[in-house]
Design the sequence.
């Protein structure tokens, strides 16, 4: 199913349109990916980047473009995105594990070190993950940024914490 | 049910409480909140029954436009509870049909 | 509010009449960060923008009457106001301003199906008002009807408030709102049923289940595709329509445009309607976003200040031009083309109407 029919984006599509960092880049260290593929008049991600690694330009409806070489993976853009669509991926730890940092705006009880279910873009539980960091800066304005360590094969898929559903 | 803690709005601030009665039953409400909110916090969702078919009605628009949440308050029928704040000692009744005016004094 | 601020900054004496217990319209229910240009408060939550506007009004000495309903506009811009003074107590007041801005917003559309009147079936905006403003949960197991931005955002906010979204039903074969709003929900496992409609709701004193089914391209339902979902709440997000009562009654000319939510008053580039002295801004002249409403308010506010002699023409022109430039930016992108065209159509309709009237009169 397409994004417009399901609401679920795929890594393949992001790669196809050139909005996904290379394996090589992810192995070098953390890097931001803007999963924003639809024109929206919006540009806080661009102005939030201290390294000018995200470009939108004069017309604020253009898609954000990350310059992988300039991005340090600092994650300032994660809570800046009103659409909660920016993630920081890292495959540099080892050959076994990597991490995904994502925005989280729900009440939570988990703590650093906890093992939680990790969900992909469709909410499906794909693996377990370990909470590495929970950051709540004043600038992030009540958008928590959670960093989850997951098996390296799932870094491209994990985008949230698995939510137990009754139905 | 009240939204006690919220990731963006934070903890629900303490508020002085008042007592209202709903169909004779005493309930606590936050001072100044809308009657409808106090009822929802206490799990009450039916505000009135329609005149002809006696069907239940409850919150629909929440901003005083649709009149589905009308109840009899202090003997006055057709009070839009979503935009009427509680007062201590208020007598609230689930309204049947168009309701009847009553002198509470 | 934004019209009031612009006019008051220039020195105009401003009175805001608001039917609600708090001024600022729907901003105090918008707890999410707004899209837009970071030069103009994008990335800031609606509630905080509302708070800033209120503070600014206070600073400028704008008078605000709450719980006050403007029930009619009569000849020579006289406004009748019904002021609530206590439980079941009202007072009628006649206000005689030099200029009027109508910014009455919009109201929710309903979807009718057997069972739609059951308690627990409500507008999505009503659910949002309950959780974010009154801080009570209207229910715990919610089905949302409509996948426009309102349906998606309210579903997300219901989850933030502690409810479970059982699903989102969309009759179109595609999601109507922004994909990023949809993705926030899908990664939490919320099913979005595109190409489905709600057939009926069951329940006695409250809705207890909803039956949904697939629809054909001609909107008829496909037998055998019914699915029953256990819910205690159905939130209807089927779009908004401008609240035009006051403007219509005052004699403002309206046009119909489906991309703006239906009938809405036409106006010139200063937001002045076909009734001289009556201006309009925000959703009441076509349903759009909060950020476009704020810009339209600025246009009306500066135009009024200029016409009353509080702002010299050059200065006013520059402010207006900047606001139009921002509006142009905000009306770009995936959902902007239709809106841009519809708003241009309103300007043309105004020009045509005034010309015609000039010929007759």
Sequence:
């Amino acid at each position: 199913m397409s994004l417009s029919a399901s609401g679920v984006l795929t890594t393949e599509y992001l790669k196809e349109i050139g909005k996904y960092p290379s394996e090589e880049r992810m192995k070098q260290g953390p890097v931001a990916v803007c999963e924003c593929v639809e024109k929206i008049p919006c540009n806080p991600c661009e102005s939030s980047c201290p390294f000018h690694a995200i470009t939108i330009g004069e017309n604020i409806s253009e898609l954000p473009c990350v310059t992988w070489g300039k991005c340090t993976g600092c994650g300032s853009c994660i809570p800046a995105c009103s659409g909660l669509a920016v993630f920081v991926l890292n495959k540099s730890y080892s050959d076994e594990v990597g991490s995904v940092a994502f925005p989280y705006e729900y009440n939570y009880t988990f703590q650093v070190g906890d093992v939680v279910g990790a969900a992909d873009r469709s909410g499906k539980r794909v693996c377990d993950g370990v909470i590495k960091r929970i950051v709540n800066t004043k600038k992030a304005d009540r958008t928590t940024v959670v960093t989850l360590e997951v098996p390296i094969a799932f870094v491209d898929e994990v985008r949230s914490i698995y939510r137990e559903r009754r139905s | 049910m009240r939204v006690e803690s919220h990731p963006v709005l934070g903890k629900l601030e303490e508020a002085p409480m008042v007592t209202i009665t709903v169909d004779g039953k005493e309930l606590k409400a936050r001072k100044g909140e809308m009657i409808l909110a106090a009822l929802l916090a206490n799990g009450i969702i039916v505000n009135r029954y329609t005149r002809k078919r006696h069907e239940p009605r409850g919150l629909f628009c929440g901003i005083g436009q649709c009149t589905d949440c009308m109840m009899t308050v202090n003997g006055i029928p057709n009070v839009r509870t979503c935009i009427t704040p509680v007062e201590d000692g208020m007598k609230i009744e689930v309204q049947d049909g168009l309701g009847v005016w009553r002198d509470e004094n | 509010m934004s019209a009031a601020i612009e006019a008051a900054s220039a020195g105009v004496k401003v009175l805001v009449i608001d039917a609600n217990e708090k001024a600022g319209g729907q901003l105090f229910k918008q707890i999410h960060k707004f899209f837009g240009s970071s030069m103009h408060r994008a990335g800031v939550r609606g509630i905080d923008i509302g708070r800033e506007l209120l503070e600014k009004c206070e600073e400028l000495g704008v008078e605000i009457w709450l719980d006050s309903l403007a029930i009619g506009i009569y000849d020579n811009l006289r406004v009748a106001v019904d002021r609530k003074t206590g439980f079941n107590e009202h007072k009628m007041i006649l206000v005689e301003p030099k200029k009027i801005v109508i910014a009455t917003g919009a109201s929710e559309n309903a979807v009718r199906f057997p069972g739609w009147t059951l308690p627990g079936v409500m507008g999505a905006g009503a659910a949002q008002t309950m959780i974010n403003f009154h801080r009570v949960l209207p229910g715990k197991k919610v089905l949302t009807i409509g996948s426009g931005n309102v349906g998606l955002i309210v579903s997300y906010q219901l989850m933030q408030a502690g409810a479970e979204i059982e699903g989102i039903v969309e009759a179109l074969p595609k999601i109507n709102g922004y994909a990023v709003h949809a993705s926030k929900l899908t990664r939490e496992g919320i099913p979005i049923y595109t190409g489905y409609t709600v057939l009926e709701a069951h329940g006695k004193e409250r809705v207890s289940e909803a039956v949904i089914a697939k629809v054909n391209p001609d909107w008829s339902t496909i037998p055998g595709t019914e699915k029953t979902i256990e819910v205690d709440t159905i939130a209807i997000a089927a779009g908004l329509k401008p609240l035009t009562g006051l403007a219509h009654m005052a004699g403002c000319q309206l046009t119909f445009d489906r991309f703006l939510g239906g009938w809405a008053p036409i106006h010139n580039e200063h937001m002045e309607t076909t009734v001289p002295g009556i201006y309009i801004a925000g959703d009441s002249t076509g349903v759009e976003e909060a950020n476009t409403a704020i810009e339209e308010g600025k246009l009306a506010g500066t135009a009024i200040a200029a016409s009353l002699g509080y702002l010299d023409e050059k200065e006013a022109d520059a402010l207006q031009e900047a606001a139009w430039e921002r509006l142009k930016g905000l009306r770009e992108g995936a959902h902007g083309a239709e809106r841009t065209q519809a708003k241009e159509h309103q300007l043309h309709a105004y020009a045509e109407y005034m010309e015609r009237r000039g010929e007759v009169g």
In short: The two ends of chain A are 22 Å apart (CA to CA). The beta strands of chain A are 31-34, 54-55, 65-66, 86-90, 97-104, 115-119, 125-135, 144-151, 160-161.
